[in-house]
C-alpha cells in the first residue's frame, strides 16, 4: 500500500485529505509544519508527498528545493489555493500541482500518475 | 575523426573545458573569450581550465582573433577539416579532445550570442561539480519564441524519454567528461546530427543514459547576433525531426518502458533579477497558407501513413478558417506517432520525403498554438504547453501498440 505524506498547516485540509486518501486505499501520514518535514521524510520514507505552498512557518517552494536536494526522484505534488505560484520557476521541480478543492478527483488522478511513473533503471 | 588543431602551449590535461563554437566570428570571438575567461576566473579559479575554440573552418581570421584576445586562460584551437562544417562535426571534435585531455567538466557556448556574460559560465558548469552529468539552460523566452521546441521537441522527448527538459536544443549546454565518451559511442549519428541536429541529439542521448540531468535558470533571454540572414525554418525542421525519429528507432527498447514523466533538477534559483524577453511576431496567415498548400504535395502520403480516423480529422482541420483554426494536440500527437512508425519501416530515400511531409503539419500546429495563446501571458502559454505534453503522454499507449 503506497504511503502518502500530506504536508499542510491547516488541520481541516489534513483531515480531508487523510480521510479521502485512506478510503482510496493509501496509507497516510500528516505533517503540520514545514520545520518537521525533512526529518519526517527520513523517518517515514513516503512514496509520495503532497506539499502545501503557503504555510505559516515555511514557503513550500523552498521546501521543495530542500526535498529535491536529498530525494531527487521522490514524487511531490504541490497543493495550493493560489494559481500565481507557477510564476516562480521553483515550482518546475514538482511532479504535478493541484489547486485545492473539496473534490479530490484531480488530486487522486495526479497521485495515481505520479506513483505509476516509470523510467528505466 | 581527423581535425585540425593548434595547441601552442602544449596542453595535455585539463579539469574544465570551456568551448566556444564559431563560424566566421572574427569580429566577436574576442569578446566571447574575454567574458568566458572572466567567468572561469571568478567562479572556477581553483580549477585547471582550458579554453577551446571549436571552429567550423572559418575563413575570416577567427583563429587569429581567438589567440589574440586578452586572456590568461590556456587556449587550444580546433577546426573541422577543409570541406567539413557544421555544429555537430565541431562538437564531435570537441568530444575527442575532451577524451584526450581527460577533462571532468565541459561547457559549450556559441560565439554569436550578444548577451553572454561571465555568469553563464557559472550557471552552466556549476551543476557539473554538484553531481549533475548533463546541464540544459532554461532561458527567459517569449511565448512565441522557439515554437519547434514548444510544439515538437519538448512534448515528444518528454513523452518518449520521461524527463521534462523544456528547452532541449537551445544551443548552450554543459556535460561531464564521461558524457563526452557516451556521446562518442551513442547511436543515431547522421548528417542531421553533424549539423544543428546535434543539440537535440545530445539531450536525448543524455536522457537515455540514465544520468542526473538538470535545467539551469539563466535569468536572461538568449540573444543571438544576426549574421545578415535569418536561419531557414525548413532545413532546421528536417534535421530536428530526423533526429527525433532516428532516435525513436534506436531507443525503442528504452522509451517503451517509460510511463509518464519526471521533473528534472533545477539550478540557479539564486534570486537574480530576471530579464524580460523581446516580443516575437508570428505571421499566422502565411503559415496557414503554407499548411493548405501542403495538401497539393502530400495529401496522398498523409492518407497512406495516417490511420483513417486521423486522416479524416486532418481533413476537418483543413476546412477551418484561420479565425477558428485549431489542430488538436491529440491529432498532432497521433500524426507524429503514425509518422514515426512509417519512418521506421521506410528505406533511406523514402525517409527524407516522409520528413518533408511533416513541415506543413508542424506549421498548422504553430498556427493553432498562436491562436490558442494569443491572449495569454507567457505563464499561461507555458501551462498550455504542459497540457500539450500531457496529451502526448496520455496517448503514448497508441504509439506502443502501433510500434
In short, what is this structure?
The complex is a heterodimer of chains A (121) and B (403). Chain A has helices at 11-23, 37-44, 60-70, 105-116, and strands at 3-7, 27-31, 48-52, 76-80, 96-99.
Report what the structure shows.
The complex is a heterodimer of chains A (121) and B (403). The radius of gyration of chain A is 13 Å and the shape is globular. Chain A has 121 residues and is of the alpha/beta class. The mean pLDDT of chain A is 93. Chain A has helices at 11-23, 37-44, 60-70, 105-116, and strands at 3-7, 27-31, 48-52, 76-80, 96-99. Chain A has one domain: Rossmann fold. In chain A, helix 1 (11-23) links the parallel strand 1 and strand 2. Chain B has two domains: 4-267, Spore Coat Polysaccharide Biosynthesis Protein SpsA, Chain A; 284-402, no CATH class. In chain B, the strands form two sheets. In chain B, strands 1-4-3-2-5-8-6-9-11 form a nine-stranded mixed β-sheet, sandwiched between helices. Chain B has a two-stranded parallel sheet with strand order 7-10. Chain B starts with a strand and ends with a helix. The mean pLDDT of chain B is 95. Classes of the chains: A alpha/beta (121), B alpha/beta (403). The A-B interface holds A 65, 68, 72-73, 86-87, 89-90, 92-95, 113-114, 116-121 and B 138, 162-164, 166, 210, 212, 215, 217, 254, 257-263, 265-266, 269, 379, 382-383.
Amino acid at each position: 500500500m503506497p504511503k502518502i505524506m500530506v504536508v499542510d498547516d491547516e488541520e481541516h485540509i489534513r483531515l480531508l485529505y487523510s480521510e479521502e486518501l485512506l478510503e482510496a486505499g493509501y496509507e497516510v501520514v500528516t505533517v503540520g509544519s514545514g520545520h518537521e518535514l525533512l526529518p519526517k521524510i527520513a523517518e517515514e520514507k513516503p512514496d509520495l508527498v503532497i506539499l502545501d505552498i503557503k504555510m505559516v512557518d515555511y514557503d513550500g517552494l523552498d521546501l521543495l528545493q530542500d526535498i529535491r536536494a536529498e530525494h531527487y526522484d521522490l514524487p511531490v505534488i504541490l497543493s495550493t489555493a493560489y494559481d500565481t505560484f507557477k510564476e516562480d520557476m521553483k515550482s518546475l521541480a514538482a511532479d504535478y500541482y493541484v489547486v485545492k478543492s473539496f473534490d479530490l478527483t484531480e488530486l487522486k488522478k495526479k497521485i495515481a500518475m505520479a506513483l505509476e511513473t516509470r523510467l528505466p533503471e | 575523426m581527423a581535425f585540425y588543431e593548434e595547441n601552442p602551449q602544449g596542453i595535455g590535461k585539463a579539469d574544465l573545458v570551456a568551448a566556444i563554437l564559431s563560424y566566421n566570428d572574427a569580429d566577436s570571438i574576442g569578446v566571447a573569450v574575454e567574458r568566458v575567461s572572466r567567468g572561469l576566473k571568478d567562479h572556477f579559479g581553483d580549477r585547471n581550465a582550458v579554453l577551446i575554440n571549436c571552429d567550423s573552418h572559418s575563413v575570416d581570421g577567427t583563429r587569429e582573433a581567438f589567440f589574440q584576445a586578452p586572456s590568461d586562460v590556456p587556449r587550444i584551437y580546433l577546426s573541422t577539416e577543409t570541406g567539413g562544417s557544421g555544429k555537430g562535426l565541431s562538437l564531435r571534435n570537441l568530444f575527442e579532445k575532451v577524451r584526450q585531455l581527460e577533462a571532468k567538466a565541459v561547457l559549450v557556448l556559441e560565439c554569436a550570442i550578444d548577451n553572454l556574460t561571465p555568469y553563464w559560465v557559472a550557471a552552466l558548469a556549476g551543476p557539473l561539480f554538484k553531481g549533475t552529468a548533463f546541464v540544459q539552460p532554461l532561458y527567459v523566452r517569449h511565448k512565441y519564441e522557439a515554437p519547434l521546441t514548444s510544439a515538437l521537441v519538448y512534448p515528444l522527448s518528454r513523452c518518449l524519454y520521461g524527463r521534462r527538459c523544456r528547452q532541449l536544443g537551445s544551443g548552450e549546454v554543459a556535460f561531464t567528461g564521461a558524457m563526452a565518451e557516451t556521446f562518442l559511442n551513442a547511436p543515431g549519428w547522421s548528417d542531421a546530427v553533424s549539423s544543428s541536429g546535434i543539440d537535440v541529439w545530445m539531450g536525448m542521448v543524455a536522457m537515455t543514459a540514465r544520468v542526473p540531468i538538470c535545467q539551469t535558470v539563466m535569468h536572461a533571454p538568449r540573444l543571438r547576433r544576426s549574421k545578415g540572414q535569418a536561419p531557414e525554418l525548413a532545413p532546421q525542421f528536417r534535421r530536428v525531426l530526423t533526429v527525433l525519429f532516428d532516435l525513436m528507432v534506436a531507443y525503442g527498447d528504452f522509451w517503451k518502458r517509460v510511463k509518464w514523466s519526471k521533473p528534472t533538477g533545477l539550478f540557479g534559483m539564486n534570486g537574480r533579477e530576471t530579464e524580460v524577453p523581446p516580443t516575437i511576431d508570428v505571421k499566422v496567415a502565411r503559415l496557414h497558407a503554407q499548411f493548405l498548400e501542403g495538401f497539393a504535395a502530400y495529401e496522398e502520403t498523409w492518407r497512406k501513413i495516417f490511420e483513417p480516423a486521423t486522416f479524416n480529422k486532418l481533413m476537418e482541420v483543413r476546412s477551418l478558417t484561420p479565425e477558428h483554426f485549431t489542430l488538436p494536440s491529440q491529432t498532432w500527437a497521433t500524426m507524429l506517432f503514425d509518422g514515426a512508425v512509417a519512418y521506421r519501416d521506410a528505406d533511406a530515400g523514402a525517409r527524407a520525403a516522409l520528413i518533408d511531409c511533416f513541415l506543413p503539419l508542424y506549421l498548422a500546429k504553430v498556427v493553432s498554438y498562436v491562436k490558442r495563446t494569443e491572449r495569454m501571458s507567457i505563464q499561461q502559454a507555458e501551462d498550455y504547453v504542459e497540457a500539450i505534453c500531457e496529451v502526448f503522454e496520455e496517448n503514448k499507449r497508441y504509439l506502443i501498440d502501433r510500434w
